[in-house]
Amino acid sequence: MPQPPKRPRKPAPAAVKTAPSKGELHPRNRHQGHYDFPALIKASPELGQFVISNPYGKPSIDFANPQAVKVFNRALLAQYYGIRHWDIPDGYLCPPIPGRADYLHNLADLLATDNAGQIPRGTAIQALDVGVGANAIYPLIGHCEYGWHFIGADIAPAALASARAIVQANRALQGAIELRQQSDAAHVFVGLLQADERIDLTLCNPPFHASAEDATRGSTRKWRNLGKLDPKRKLPVLNFGGQAAELWCPGGEAAFLKRMASESAQVAKQVLWFSSLVSKGGNVELLQGWLARAGASEVHILGMSQGQKQSRLVAWTFKDAAQREAWRQNRWR
Fold first, then answer.
1. What sign for the dihedral angle of Cα 242, 95, 137, 162?
2. Segment 46-93, tens digit of pLDDT
3. Domain that holds residue 253
4. For the whole model, what pTM was predicted?
5. CATH number, domain containing residue 242
6. What's the structural domain count of the chain?
7. Is the predicted pLDDT of residue 199 greater than 90, yes or no?
8. Contact residues for 58 (Cβ-Cβ < 8 A; gap 6+)
9. Radius of gyration from C-alpha coordinates of the chain
């Protein structure tokens, strides 16, 4: 009996690619150039005890000291964003703030392409941070810079408790950030959104290791590359901390991105733009293929750079230009 002809695979949506010059942050990023340590210490006096001189004689901190990194982040948030109370439990991920800010500025530019070049601001813009973590860094910066309202989602009650303590300790954040638990670790979006909710953008820094052992090996390689492996010195196992859900998941980054692509199609009517960081370059092409099968209509691949570190931001939508214009008219006017 003759077999029916195979349906041709839908081609991947044409990707719009952009990339900054090497080492450059987004033009609106507040963290350009060298840090003003006297100003940082004024904003957060406790930083003073951690300041050292780097090999070039310039003030810096010891990035191998988790406590120093945490206090440094606290000072950055106080000086640049007005966040006066910020803390995370020991062992949780302490994020590099300039790179996290870059992600948000690039998302703001993406929304502006659907708004005649103007960045939509204010609490009418609803953002969903998938994996908000204990530090809540994306909602903090995103609300400060653009006034957006955030939903911060996580599977870990302890991480949400830490994020909630940060929000409650800062009066300016009251009503700006809602924290919500994803009760099923097997899902990303499914079961998280309410039926009548509309989300303008989602963001995510996915776990990129497949196991705790993989995460430890990766950190060891990073220290070796930085020339910091000193047998006489005890270094942290993970250079910026991190709990299980923050750093690894079964199948690693690729498996998480595949699940995210598939589930984004299931909530496509409720969301304008989805996005995720992608740490491994080879996973970008894989994600494009999964998005094509899911039916995405447009994909943007944005390169980001901080010092020697290169990363990728992938954003996608299931709405065509006319549908995005209708979304703007209904929500952003």
1. positive
2. 999 999 998 888 999 988 888 999 999 999 999 999 999 999 998 888
3. 15-33+91-331
4. 0.85
5. 3.40.50.150
6. 1
7. yes
8. 34
9. 20
